[in-house]
Design goal:
Layout: E1 3-8, H1 16-29, E2 35-38, H2 41-46, E3 50-52, H3 58-66, H4 86-98, E4 101-108, H5 110-125, E5 131-136, H6 152-173, E6 180-185, H7 192-195, E7 209-212, H8 220-234, E8 237-242, E9 255-261, E10 264-269, H9 272-284, E11 288-291, H10 296-299, H11 306-324, E12 330-338, E13 343-350, H12 351-354, H13 375-381, E14 393-394, E15 397-398
Parallel strand pairs: 1-2, 1-4, 4-5, 6-8, 6-11, 7-8
Antiparallel strand pairs: 2-3, 9-10, 12-13, 14-15
Protein backbone atom coordinates (compact mmCIF):
# COMPACT_ATOMS: atom_id res chain seq x y z
CA UNK A 1 0.00 0.00 0.00
CA UNK A 2 1.26 3.48 -0.88
CA UNK A 3 1.22 6.72 1.13
CA UNK A 4 -1.26 9.59 0.76
CA UNK A 5 -0.87 13.36 0.51
CA UNK A 6 -3.45 16.11 1.20
CA UNK A 7 -3.37 19.83 0.34
CA UNK A 8 -5.68 22.84 0.49
CA UNK A 9 -6.24 25.44 -2.22
CA UNK A 10 -8.11 28.65 -2.97
CA UNK A 11 -10.31 30.66 -0.64
CA UNK A 12 -10.86 28.90 2.66
CA UNK A 13 -14.13 28.13 4.43
CA UNK A 14 -15.23 27.75 8.04
CA UNK A 15 -15.27 23.96 7.55
CA UNK A 16 -12.41 23.16 5.16
CA UNK A 17 -10.39 21.71 8.05
CA UNK A 18 -13.28 19.39 8.85
CA UNK A 19 -12.75 17.89 5.39
CA UNK A 20 -9.06 17.48 6.21
CA UNK A 21 -10.03 15.56 9.35
CA UNK A 22 -12.39 13.41 7.27
CA UNK A 23 -9.53 12.54 4.92
CA UNK A 24 -7.12 11.73 7.75
CA UNK A 25 -9.51 9.61 9.81
CA UNK A 26 -10.76 7.67 6.79
CA UNK A 27 -7.21 7.02 5.57
CA UNK A 28 -6.50 5.56 9.00
CA UNK A 29 -9.44 3.20 8.62
CA UNK A 30 -7.75 1.84 5.49
CA UNK A 31 -4.40 1.49 7.32
CA UNK A 32 -2.58 3.93 5.04
CA UNK A 33 1.16 3.64 5.89
CA UNK A 34 1.95 7.38 5.95
CA UNK A 35 -0.26 10.44 5.64
CA UNK A 36 1.35 13.69 4.50
CA UNK A 37 0.03 17.20 4.01
CA UNK A 38 1.56 19.96 1.89
CA UNK A 39 1.83 23.39 3.49
CA UNK A 40 0.57 26.09 1.10
CA UNK A 41 -1.14 23.86 -1.43
CA UNK A 42 0.40 22.92 -4.74
CA UNK A 43 3.07 25.61 -4.30
CA UNK A 44 4.16 24.07 -1.02
CA UNK A 45 4.22 20.68 -2.69
CA UNK A 46 6.60 22.01 -5.33
CA UNK A 47 8.73 23.48 -2.53
CA UNK A 48 8.68 20.18 -0.56
CA UNK A 49 7.01 21.91 2.39
CA UNK A 50 5.45 18.84 3.95
CA UNK A 51 4.23 17.62 7.34
CA UNK A 52 3.75 14.02 8.44
CA UNK A 53 0.27 13.53 9.92
CA UNK A 54 0.53 9.80 10.43
CA UNK A 55 0.80 10.13 14.20
CA UNK A 56 -1.56 13.09 14.70
CA UNK A 57 -3.36 12.48 17.99
CA UNK A 58 -7.08 12.57 18.71
CA UNK A 59 -6.90 15.87 20.57
CA UNK A 60 -5.26 17.55 17.58
CA UNK A 61 -7.86 16.07 15.25
CA UNK A 62 -10.68 17.46 17.39
CA UNK A 63 -9.04 20.90 17.36
CA UNK A 64 -8.66 20.63 13.59
CA UNK A 65 -12.40 19.99 13.23
CA UNK A 66 -13.20 23.28 15.00
CA UNK A 67 -10.71 25.60 13.28
CA UNK A 68 -11.76 27.99 10.52
CA UNK A 69 -9.23 29.13 7.92
CA UNK A 70 -6.81 26.78 6.23
CA UNK A 71 -4.87 24.84 8.85
CA UNK A 72 -2.45 23.77 6.11
CA UNK A 73 -2.34 27.18 4.36
CA UNK A 74 -4.45 27.19 1.21
CA UNK A 75 -2.62 28.80 -1.69
CA UNK A 76 -3.73 30.75 -4.74
CA UNK A 77 -1.22 29.34 -7.18
CA UNK A 78 -1.94 27.86 -10.58
CA UNK A 79 0.32 25.48 -12.41
CA UNK A 80 1.49 26.78 -15.75
CA UNK A 81 0.79 24.79 -18.89
CA UNK A 82 2.90 21.73 -19.48
CA UNK A 83 4.37 23.38 -22.58
CA UNK A 84 5.48 26.47 -20.65
CA UNK A 85 6.71 24.87 -17.43
CA UNK A 86 7.34 21.13 -17.88
CA UNK A 87 9.69 21.36 -14.90
CA UNK A 88 6.72 21.96 -12.56
CA UNK A 89 5.16 18.68 -13.57
CA UNK A 90 8.48 16.84 -13.44
CA UNK A 91 8.98 18.21 -9.94
CA UNK A 92 5.58 16.98 -8.77
CA UNK A 93 6.32 13.53 -10.13
CA UNK A 94 9.66 13.63 -8.35
CA UNK A 95 7.95 14.50 -5.04
CA UNK A 96 5.29 11.82 -5.45
CA UNK A 97 7.89 9.19 -6.33
CA UNK A 98 10.28 10.05 -3.50
CA UNK A 99 7.58 9.96 -0.83
CA UNK A 100 5.82 6.96 -2.39
CA UNK A 101 2.54 8.86 -2.73
CA UNK A 102 -0.21 6.69 -4.14
CA UNK A 103 -3.08 9.17 -3.67
CA UNK A 104 -3.16 12.97 -3.87
CA UNK A 105 -6.18 14.75 -2.34
CA UNK A 106 -6.66 18.38 -3.38
CA UNK A 107 -9.23 20.28 -1.32
CA UNK A 108 -10.53 23.24 -3.32
CA UNK A 109 -13.10 24.87 -5.56
CA UNK A 110 -13.65 24.75 -9.30
CA UNK A 111 -10.41 26.56 -10.15
CA UNK A 112 -8.43 24.18 -7.94
CA UNK A 113 -9.99 21.25 -9.73
CA UNK A 114 -8.28 22.45 -12.91
CA UNK A 115 -4.94 22.14 -11.11
CA UNK A 116 -5.90 18.70 -9.86
CA UNK A 117 -6.86 17.71 -13.40
CA UNK A 118 -3.47 18.84 -14.75
CA UNK A 119 -1.70 16.72 -12.15
CA UNK A 120 -3.93 13.72 -12.85
CA UNK A 121 -3.36 13.95 -16.62
CA UNK A 122 0.41 14.29 -16.34
CA UNK A 123 0.91 11.43 -13.92
CA UNK A 124 -1.31 9.20 -16.02
CA UNK A 125 0.70 10.07 -19.14
CA UNK A 126 3.91 9.04 -17.37
CA UNK A 127 2.52 5.76 -16.14
CA UNK A 128 2.91 6.73 -12.49
CA UNK A 129 0.33 4.92 -10.30
CA UNK A 130 -1.09 8.05 -8.65
CA UNK A 131 -4.76 8.49 -7.89
CA UNK A 132 -5.68 12.17 -7.91
CA UNK A 133 -8.95 12.95 -6.10
CA UNK A 134 -10.57 16.32 -5.50
CA UNK A 135 -12.17 17.26 -2.16
CA UNK A 136 -15.08 19.66 -2.68
CA UNK A 137 -15.29 23.07 -1.00
CA UNK A 138 -16.27 26.66 -1.72
CA UNK A 139 -18.40 29.26 0.01
CA UNK A 140 -19.56 30.55 -3.38
CA UNK A 141 -21.61 27.36 -3.93
CA UNK A 142 -20.58 27.34 -7.57
CA UNK A 143 -19.20 23.81 -8.03
CA UNK A 144 -20.75 22.48 -11.22
CA UNK A 145 -22.84 19.29 -10.99
CA UNK A 146 -23.02 19.50 -7.18
CA UNK A 147 -26.33 20.10 -5.39
CA UNK A 148 -24.44 22.40 -3.02
CA UNK A 149 -20.86 22.95 -1.91
CA UNK A 150 -19.32 22.22 1.51
CA UNK A 151 -18.57 25.62 3.04
CA UNK A 152 -21.55 27.42 1.55
CA UNK A 153 -24.08 26.58 4.27
CA UNK A 154 -21.94 28.07 7.03
CA UNK A 155 -21.20 31.25 5.06
CA UNK A 156 -24.91 31.64 4.27
CA UNK A 157 -25.77 31.10 7.93
CA UNK A 158 -23.27 33.80 8.95
CA UNK A 159 -24.56 36.33 6.42
CA UNK A 160 -28.24 35.72 7.17
CA UNK A 161 -27.68 35.86 10.94
CA UNK A 162 -25.76 39.13 10.82
CA UNK A 163 -28.05 40.63 8.20
CA UNK A 164 -30.97 39.93 10.54
CA UNK A 165 -29.27 41.71 13.41
CA UNK A 166 -28.36 44.68 11.23
CA UNK A 167 -31.96 44.84 10.00
CA UNK A 168 -33.23 45.13 13.57
CA UNK A 169 -30.73 47.93 14.14
CA UNK A 170 -31.87 49.85 11.06
CA UNK A 171 -35.53 49.19 11.86
CA UNK A 172 -35.12 50.70 15.31
CA UNK A 173 -33.33 53.85 14.07
CA UNK A 174 -35.04 54.49 10.75
CA UNK A 175 -37.50 57.12 11.98
CA UNK A 176 -34.71 59.61 12.66
CA UNK A 177 -31.57 58.11 11.15
CA UNK A 178 -30.52 55.50 8.57
CA UNK A 179 -33.21 54.44 6.10
CA UNK A 180 -31.16 52.27 3.73
CA UNK A 181 -28.64 49.58 4.62
CA UNK A 182 -26.75 47.39 2.15
CA UNK A 183 -24.43 44.44 2.79
CA UNK A 184 -22.00 42.99 0.27
CA UNK A 185 -21.72 39.23 -0.23
CA UNK A 186 -18.91 37.29 -1.87
CA UNK A 187 -19.58 35.75 -5.25
CA UNK A 188 -17.78 37.11 -8.28
CA UNK A 189 -20.09 35.61 -10.88
CA UNK A 190 -22.81 33.93 -8.83
CA UNK A 191 -25.36 35.21 -6.33
CA UNK A 192 -25.82 32.26 -3.99
CA UNK A 193 -24.52 34.09 -0.93
CA UNK A 194 -26.51 37.23 -1.72
CA UNK A 195 -29.66 35.08 -1.69
CA UNK A 196 -28.97 34.15 1.95
CA UNK A 197 -30.51 37.48 3.04
CA UNK A 198 -33.85 36.05 2.01
CA UNK A 199 -33.74 33.71 5.00
CA UNK A 200 -34.44 36.71 7.23
CA UNK A 201 -38.00 36.60 5.86
CA UNK A 202 -38.53 33.57 8.09
CA UNK A 203 -38.04 35.92 11.07
CA UNK A 204 -39.44 39.21 9.72
CA UNK A 205 -42.31 38.29 7.42
CA UNK A 206 -42.92 41.68 5.79
CA UNK A 207 -39.25 42.48 5.23
CA UNK A 208 -38.50 45.50 2.97
CA UNK A 209 -35.72 43.62 1.19
CA UNK A 210 -33.84 43.94 -2.07
CA UNK A 211 -31.45 41.21 -3.25
CA UNK A 212 -29.07 41.91 -6.12
CA UNK A 213 -27.54 38.60 -7.31
CA UNK A 214 -24.71 38.54 -9.83
CA UNK A 215 -26.90 36.64 -12.30
CA UNK A 216 -29.05 39.71 -12.95
CA UNK A 217 -27.90 42.94 -14.59
CA UNK A 218 -28.19 45.97 -12.32
CA UNK A 219 -30.66 48.57 -13.53
CA UNK A 220 -30.13 51.78 -11.60
CA UNK A 221 -33.51 53.36 -12.32
CA UNK A 222 -35.52 50.27 -11.36
CA UNK A 223 -33.39 49.77 -8.26
CA UNK A 224 -33.86 53.32 -7.00
CA UNK A 225 -37.58 53.16 -7.71
CA UNK A 226 -37.94 50.01 -5.60
CA UNK A 227 -35.83 51.44 -2.76
CA UNK A 228 -38.02 54.53 -2.73
CA UNK A 229 -41.20 52.46 -2.67
CA UNK A 230 -40.00 50.30 0.24
CA UNK A 231 -38.85 53.28 2.29
CA UNK A 232 -42.19 55.02 1.71
CA UNK A 233 -44.09 51.92 2.86
CA UNK A 234 -41.88 50.63 5.71
CA UNK A 235 -39.71 53.56 6.67
CA UNK A 236 -36.54 51.71 5.71
CA UNK A 237 -35.06 49.29 3.19
CA UNK A 238 -32.33 46.64 3.49
CA UNK A 239 -30.33 45.16 0.64
CA UNK A 240 -27.83 42.38 -0.05
CA UNK A 241 -25.70 42.59 -3.20
CA UNK A 242 -23.20 40.28 -4.89
CA UNK A 243 -19.69 41.70 -5.01
CA UNK A 244 -19.46 41.04 -8.75
CA UNK A 245 -22.69 42.87 -9.62
CA UNK A 246 -22.62 44.25 -13.18
CA UNK A 247 -24.78 46.78 -15.01
CA UNK A 248 -26.79 46.26 -18.19
CA UNK A 249 -23.65 46.94 -20.26
CA UNK A 250 -21.74 44.17 -18.50
CA UNK A 251 -19.54 46.58 -16.54
CA UNK A 252 -18.84 45.67 -12.92
CA UNK A 253 -20.09 48.28 -10.47
CA UNK A 254 -16.95 48.07 -8.36
CA UNK A 255 -13.53 46.45 -8.80
CA UNK A 256 -11.02 46.97 -5.99
CA UNK A 257 -7.96 46.04 -8.06
CA UNK A 258 -6.68 43.94 -10.93
CA UNK A 259 -3.68 41.62 -10.83
CA UNK A 260 -1.88 39.93 -13.72
CA UNK A 261 -0.44 36.44 -13.19
CA UNK A 262 0.12 33.31 -15.30
CA UNK A 263 -1.13 35.16 -18.38
CA UNK A 264 -4.49 35.92 -16.77
CA UNK A 265 -6.16 39.00 -15.28
CA UNK A 266 -7.48 38.46 -11.76
CA UNK A 267 -10.02 40.93 -10.42
CA UNK A 268 -10.43 41.52 -6.71
CA UNK A 269 -13.94 42.74 -6.09
CA UNK A 270 -15.03 44.94 -3.23
CA UNK A 271 -16.88 48.17 -2.65
CA UNK A 272 -20.21 47.51 -4.37
CA UNK A 273 -22.14 47.99 -1.10
CA UNK A 274 -20.53 51.36 -0.49
CA UNK A 275 -21.25 52.42 -4.08
CA UNK A 276 -24.91 51.42 -3.82
CA UNK A 277 -25.26 53.26 -0.50
CA UNK A 278 -23.80 56.43 -2.02
CA UNK A 279 -26.12 56.10 -5.02
CA UNK A 280 -29.22 55.87 -2.82
CA UNK A 281 -28.08 58.72 -0.58
CA UNK A 282 -27.48 61.06 -3.51
CA UNK A 283 -30.63 60.12 -5.41
CA UNK A 284 -33.13 59.91 -2.54
CA UNK A 285 -31.50 62.26 -0.02
CA UNK A 286 -31.69 59.75 2.86
CA UNK A 287 -29.06 58.56 5.29
CA UNK A 288 -27.48 55.23 4.31
CA UNK A 289 -25.00 52.70 5.65
CA UNK A 290 -23.07 49.87 4.04
CA UNK A 291 -21.12 46.84 5.25
CA UNK A 292 -18.69 44.45 3.64
CA UNK A 293 -18.14 41.38 5.84
CA UNK A 294 -15.42 40.23 3.43
CA UNK A 295 -13.35 37.43 5.04
CA UNK A 296 -15.70 37.25 8.03
CA UNK A 297 -18.32 35.35 6.01
CA UNK A 298 -15.89 32.53 5.26
CA UNK A 299 -14.04 32.39 8.58
CA UNK A 300 -16.67 32.42 11.32
CA UNK A 301 -16.47 29.30 13.44
CA UNK A 302 -19.28 30.74 15.55
CA UNK A 303 -21.85 30.42 12.75
CA UNK A 304 -21.03 26.97 11.42
CA UNK A 305 -24.04 25.08 10.13
CA UNK A 306 -24.17 21.56 11.55
CA UNK A 307 -25.46 20.34 8.18
CA UNK A 308 -22.55 22.01 6.38
CA UNK A 309 -20.06 20.62 8.91
CA UNK A 310 -21.30 17.09 8.28
CA UNK A 311 -21.16 17.58 4.51
CA UNK A 312 -17.58 18.85 4.77
CA UNK A 313 -16.50 15.85 6.82
CA UNK A 314 -18.18 13.45 4.42
CA UNK A 315 -16.54 15.22 1.46
CA UNK A 316 -13.15 14.25 2.86
CA UNK A 317 -14.25 10.71 3.66
CA UNK A 318 -15.87 10.27 0.23
CA UNK A 319 -12.62 11.27 -1.50
CA UNK A 320 -10.75 8.53 0.37
CA UNK A 321 -13.42 5.93 -0.38
CA UNK A 322 -13.25 6.88 -4.07
CA UNK A 323 -9.49 6.35 -4.09
CA UNK A 324 -9.81 3.00 -2.35
CA UNK A 325 -12.31 1.92 -5.00
CA UNK A 326 -9.71 2.60 -7.68
CA UNK A 327 -11.14 5.89 -8.95
CA UNK A 328 -8.78 8.49 -10.39
CA UNK A 329 -9.14 12.06 -11.64
CA UNK A 330 -12.52 12.54 -9.95
CA UNK A 331 -14.32 14.84 -7.52
CA UNK A 332 -16.99 13.36 -5.22
CA UNK A 333 -19.84 15.89 -5.12
CA UNK A 334 -23.18 16.13 -3.35
CA UNK A 335 -26.42 14.66 -4.67
CA UNK A 336 -29.66 15.31 -2.82
CA UNK A 337 -31.46 12.08 -1.94
CA UNK A 338 -34.69 13.50 -0.50
CA UNK A 339 -36.20 16.63 1.04
CA UNK A 340 -37.86 15.24 4.17
CA UNK A 341 -35.71 14.55 6.01
CA UNK A 342 -33.02 16.34 4.02
CA UNK A 343 -30.44 13.72 3.08
CA UNK A 344 -27.63 13.52 0.57
CA UNK A 345 -24.91 11.27 -0.80
CA UNK A 346 -21.65 11.73 -2.69
CA UNK A 347 -21.14 10.74 -6.30
CA UNK A 348 -17.87 10.99 -8.23
CA UNK A 349 -17.57 13.07 -11.39
CA UNK A 350 -14.49 13.45 -13.61
CA UNK A 351 -12.44 16.49 -12.69
CA UNK A 352 -12.62 17.61 -16.31
CA UNK A 353 -16.42 17.92 -15.98
CA UNK A 354 -16.24 20.39 -13.08
CA UNK A 355 -12.94 22.23 -13.59
CA UNK A 356 -13.52 25.96 -14.08
CA UNK A 357 -17.26 25.52 -14.58
CA UNK A 358 -19.75 27.44 -12.45
CA UNK A 359 -23.08 26.52 -10.92
CA UNK A 360 -25.22 29.64 -11.27
CA UNK A 361 -28.39 30.42 -9.36
CA UNK A 362 -31.38 28.97 -11.27
CA UNK A 363 -33.85 31.43 -12.73
CA UNK A 364 -36.70 30.10 -10.59
CA UNK A 365 -34.80 31.05 -7.40
CA UNK A 366 -34.85 34.74 -8.38
CA UNK A 367 -37.99 36.89 -8.62
CA UNK A 368 -39.20 38.20 -11.96
CA UNK A 369 -37.87 41.70 -11.24
CA UNK A 370 -34.43 40.23 -10.44
CA UNK A 371 -34.32 41.83 -6.99
CA UNK A 372 -35.70 39.20 -4.60
CA UNK A 373 -35.71 35.49 -3.77
CA UNK A 374 -38.57 33.12 -4.56
CA UNK A 375 -40.13 30.42 -2.37
CA UNK A 376 -38.14 27.85 -4.36
CA UNK A 377 -34.92 29.64 -3.47
CA UNK A 378 -35.83 29.73 0.21
CA UNK A 379 -36.72 26.04 0.18
CA UNK A 380 -33.26 25.31 -1.22
CA UNK A 381 -31.43 27.41 1.38
CA UNK A 382 -33.22 26.44 4.59
CA UNK A 383 -31.83 22.90 5.15
CA UNK A 384 -28.28 24.00 4.35
CA UNK A 385 -28.09 26.37 7.35
CA UNK A 386 -29.71 24.02 9.85
CA UNK A 387 -28.08 23.10 13.15
CA UNK A 388 -25.30 24.53 15.27
CA UNK A 389 -21.93 23.28 16.47
CA UNK A 390 -20.85 23.68 20.12
CA UNK A 391 -17.99 26.06 20.81
CA UNK A 392 -15.54 26.01 23.73
CA UNK A 393 -14.76 29.46 25.17
CA UNK A 394 -11.70 30.48 27.15
CA UNK A 395 -11.19 33.86 28.81
CA UNK A 396 -14.17 35.25 26.96
CA UNK A 397 -13.03 34.20 23.48
CA UNK A 398 -13.54 31.08 21.35
CA UNK A 399 -10.80 28.50 21.91
CA UNK A 400 -9.39 28.53 18.39
CA UNK A 401 -5.66 28.28 18.94
CA UNK A 402 -3.98 27.39 15.63
CA UNK A 403 -2.18 24.10 15.19
CA UNK A 404 1.56 24.42 14.61
CA UNK A 405 2.89 21.74 12.30
CA UNK A 406 6.48 20.54 12.34
CA UNK A 407 7.70 20.30 8.77
CA UNK A 408 9.72 17.29 7.76
CA UNK A 409 13.33 17.85 6.69
CA UNK A 410 13.68 18.46 2.96
CA UNK A 411 15.50 15.72 1.06
CA UNK A 412 15.28 16.87 -2.55
CA UNK A 413 17.04 19.73 -4.39
CA UNK A 414 15.36 23.14 -4.12
CA UNK A 415 12.95 24.20 -6.86
CA UNK A 416 12.24 27.65 -8.32
CA UNK A 417 8.45 27.93 -8.45
CA UNK A 418 8.60 31.51 -9.79
CA UNK A 419 10.98 30.75 -12.64
CA UNK A 420 10.17 32.74 -15.82
Amino acid sequence: MHNALYAQAGGVTAVINVSAAGVIETLRQYNTPRIYAAINGIQGLLDEELVDLTQINDAELERLKCLPGGAFQACRFDLDTLEKRPDQYERLLQIFSYYDIGTFFYNGGNGSMLTAQKVADYCQSKGYPLRCIGVAKTIDNDLAMSYCSPGFGSAAKFLASHFLQATLDIQSMSASSTKFFVMEAMGRNVGWLALSAGLVKDVIADLPLIILPAERAFNEQRFLHKVSQLIDKHGYCVCMASEGLCDTEGQCLSVAREEHAHGKVYRQFGGVAQKLAQLVEQALQVKTHSANPDYLQRSSALCVSATDWQMAYEAGAAAVHAAQQGEHGVLPIIEKVQDQPFTWRFKSYPLADVAELELRVPDDYISDDGMDITDAGLAYLRPLVMGERPMIWRQGLPALQPLNWKRIAKSLPSFATDKN
